[in-house]
């Protein structure tokens, strides 16, 4: 009998082919891909997508599996900075985050009902999918790579949210009234495209008839703080997107990412230095499978 494969991939700094260190922080990064909205109809028909269940306590979600080599012509690489940021793998933090969000709801500390939700660095999108199933009004998924959204995130949403299967796949509204949309781009630029973000250069909220004060009530992110060079950009994007004064951010990640220098504590030092948001730990996971993982909640002081 074949042994059961783990439902997540541990963080690796070296490719399994032994080709060497993956984080080439000294080399200049290529220009980021353009920021685009990816429509549900833009699922890649040529990439093989298989689905399997993930058990999260009393909750079962479906997760897709696609080949990194098939999508990006990369062989077993977790990330290639500036080209591919690991979105095709299911990291432990996304599972930790879904479990923590479920606990927060059960404890009466959180409700997604009627809320605007943004998942940054979504990959599989399981936390955002959980928000869909918990009756959020709008759920927007963001990933660095449009290919991740086309080959994995959108198929995952289709698999888990039956109401999000309109006949033309062009619509973004579910039968239940949820708005589900997908955006690709770098954290330094993607706010210009997000419907509920502060955009001084070209205020999309005003042109779309939405209040310029309308931002995201809840921001979700898992395993987004591994690279020191992006922490400030991520934090600045959060400030452009989060609703004041009651918006909250839920972050799941490792305490330290050895070899690349990032981690929850490094990111929280950026938050603390700015002095606008307060942080509180929601969960700590020390199961021996990796270095310590944490879930944190950020809210306005």
From TrEMBL:
Main location (coarse class): cytoplasm
Region Disordered: start-end pairs: 1-29
Keyword Transport: no
EC top class, as a word: transferase
GO cellular component term, pick one: cytoplasm
CDD domains: AdoMet_MTases
Name recorded for this polypeptide: protein-histidine N-methyltransferase
Lineage, broadest ranks: Eukaryota, Viridiplantae, Streptophyta, Embryophyta, Tracheophyta
